[in-house]
Amino acid sequence: MTPLVLVHGFLGGARQWQEQVAGLSAGLSPGLSPGLRTGLSTGLSTGRRVLPLDLPGFGARVGEAAPTTIDGFAEAVIADMDAAGIERCHLLGHSMGGMVVQAVLARAPERIERLVLYATAPSGALPDRFESFETSKQRAAADGAKATARRIAATWFAEGAASPGYPACAAIAEQAGLAAIHAGLDAMAAWRGIGGLERVACPTLVLWGDRDRTYAWRDIEALWRGIPGAALAVVPGCGHAVHLETPVIFNAIVARFLDG
Asked: Is 111 helix (H, G, I), strand (E, B) or coil?
């Protein structure tokens, strides 16, 4: 069965996928980096190998310098796939991670069997984001990395900090340092997309929560209408973190798509 690689978004980490990955201790390879060892297992669909990554600068890789471009993050994902011995996979990217997997697709389309673009956009121009990237940078510098990470993480949930999924998500987010926060924001702001969405040949699912405050419907619609034959799933009453707010529904949607 084709493995699934999960790429988290800005201020995320591999540990945020625990509702999607069953038995994180299963199938570990001692030769992998700490970021890879956190999540090589079986999950989402019976018998499927699932690899949730930590991007440089985030999660278990907070000690590494974060790239300042989406292409730089894409190169890190490809390197992790190589290290894990994954030649071909299903690839799911959330938020900034959705931009990253599009860049991976542009570099190595032959390595992606099915693509899930989750709460993301075809470019880094996000006029409807809850605040501009520059404002986020300024507030991070003024308020500090941890306070900024927790504040931004609250915007990902329809119920804000009152959401049951918020504390664990915020704990992952606040690991990131100021340099990584600025790097991620700069990478998204400067990214202009892969262009030529009409040339995306692999089956693609576009997934979104209708109360997302980061990515607006027009971002989602541009992906859905721009990619030939793309499937669309809109989950009502959810914000930017559907996989944490309604994991059973999220998992069912993704598993159904991956199983064809």
From this structure: helix
Task: Give the separation between CA 172 and CA 153, rounded to whole angstroms.
Answer: 9
Amino acid at 8: H
The per-residue pLDDT for range 138-155, each reduced to its tens digit, is: 999 999 999 999 999 999
Task: Collapse the DSSP code of 3 into the 3-class scheme (helix H, G, I; strand E, B; otherwise coil) and give the result.
Answer: coil
Closest by CA position to 240, among listed 165, 138, 136: 165
Alpha carbons 182 and 246: distance in angstroms, whole number? 30
Contact 157, 4 (CB under 8 A): no
Distances (CA, A) of 236 to 17, 217, 226: 20, 12, 23
- What is the pTM assigned to this prediction? 0.91
* SS3 assignment, position 124: coil
Helix, strand, coil percentages in the chain from 3-state DSSP, rounded to 5: 45, 15, 40
User: How many CA atoms does the CB half-sphere of 213 hold within 13 Å?
Assistant: 12
Rg (CA), the chain: 16
pLDDT in tens, 23-72: 323 333 333 344 443 333 334 646 788 999 999 999 999 999 999 999 99
Number of neighbours of residue 170 by Cβ within 10 angstroms: 20
Label residues 53-74 b or e (16+ Cβ within 10 Å = b). Answer: bbbbbbbbbbebebbbebbbbb
SS3 letters for 213-242? CCCCHHHHHHHHHHCCCCEEEEECCCCCCH
DSSP H helical segments within the chain, as ranges? 34-37, 70-83, 96-107, 133-143, 145-154, 166-173, 178-190, 217-226, 242-245, 247-258
For residue 169, give Cα distances in angstroms to 154, 155, 174, 223: 9, 11, 9, 26
